[in-house]
């Protein structure tokens, strides 16, 4: 874990926000299993996050926030990810969509979205398309010109928390160019199709949205981007996986200390195979964590290196989450790792999602490898 004073650690004056997240995470841990079981949205958690001031704090100062650093954001997502991964997933998307609309929009529209976030409205990303898969920034669906804007007929899928969203960050092709819009929820032209019966992150309720002539308003069209900039989704997703890895490692350590092997009379923790494997997972988690904090430091410097760093951090974090959860299942055995009543079993399922979410581990590796090997 990164220590205070380290250049990648959250700035000292933001410590109170980290303490707030620690407190919230403690209560979210209590209900994570029940939300997974019921598949209900963890609305109470999301409202508690808003009441704590964290949503607002992430906005830029000029829009009423505290310009909370990416270093703190990462640390907070990691704490939430360890406590309730579904809550962390929806929250990353909520902040990513809201901050994305504020930073991408013209100033008057940006002020509108900032005020909506401050007022507690909920935001969602509707970017992935059924045929587009991982390439969520390259929409394939065309929006057609109509009075007041462009009409979209089609679908977006896996939109975390969409059923409670007031506003969407959405993209579509306009004149063959990928274009972002802010879109208010419109029950007359949008329908949520309940596809989300999944292995993990069950309470994120990342449903399919069907659009029938939905108006993407011209005055909510985001101007063309001035280039790749740091963003909260790119930064946050690595930390969601790191949080799951933290929880899996903590669970396996706790079980290994308590479980006494009858033939030796000694705890499982004394077994050499476990010491080797635990050391391996722990060391790789430290390395993935340190690199992810470095990625956030780059974001705080507004460095163009942030983009390749998110890919490295994401694939390292996604992989260690899967490996830590896998080891936790082995250590827990059938009784503490495989039964539905075990938190390890949920962490194992939740750990699979990070590597599938865009950009997937394979897309990240392909991009990194291609750039490394290019002449
Ligand atoms: C829990 C969860 C929450 C999500 N939340 C949101 C959200 O809030 N908003 C949103 O818009 N989207 C969201 N998504 C969608 C997500 O970000 C991806 O866009 C989506 O999962 C990709 O589709 P697919 O999983 O069917 O994979 P596909 O893209 O079909 O991938 C299938 C396989 O092909 C590989 N592959 C695909 N393309 C390439 C390539 N170019 N190079 C190498 N390998 C490739 C993949 O790595 C994978 O192994 C969420 C997804 C999940 C799982």
Spatial arrangement of strands, main beta sheet = 2-3-7-6
Strand/helix succession: HHHHHHEEEEEEEHEEHHHH
Biggest pleated sheet: 4 strands, antiparallel
Mean of pLDDT: 97
- Number of beta-strand segments: 9
Strand content: 5-15%
CATH architecture of the largest domain: Up-down Bundle
Q: Which regions contain 5 or more consecutive residues with pLDDT less than 50? A: none
Question: Treating each run of at least 4 consecutive H or I residues as one helix, how many helices?
Answer: 11
The global form is: globular
* N- to C-terminal distance: 38 Å
C-alpha Rg (nearest Å): 21 Å
Class by helix and strand content?
alpha+beta
> Portion of residues in helices?
40-55%
Query: What is the fold-level CATH name, i.e. the topology of the largest domain?
Result: Butyryl-CoA Dehydrogenase, subunit A, domain 3
Question: What does this protein look like?
Answer:
It is a single chain. The protein has 375 residues and is α+β, with helices and mostly antiparallel strands. The chain has 3 domains: 12-118, Butyryl-Coa Dehydrogenase, subunit A, domain 1 (Orthogonal Bundle); 123-220, Beta Barrel (Butyryl-CoA Dehydrogenase, subunit A, domain 2), CATH 2.40.110.10; 232-373, Up-down Bundle (Butyryl-CoA Dehydrogenase, subunit A, domain 3), CATH 1.20.140. The chain has 11 helices and 9 strands. The strands form 3 sheets. Strands 2-3-7-6 form a 4-stranded antiparallel beta sheet, with no helix packed on it. It has a 3-stranded mixed beta sheet with strand order 1-4-5, covered by helices on one side. It has a two-stranded antiparallel ribbon with strand order 8-9. The longest helix has 33 residues, at 306-338. The structure holds flavin-adenine dinucleotide. Residues 89, 93, 125-128, 133-134, 136, 158-160, 201, 204, 206, 353, 356-358, 360, 362-363, 366 line the site of flavin-adenine dinucleotide (FAD).
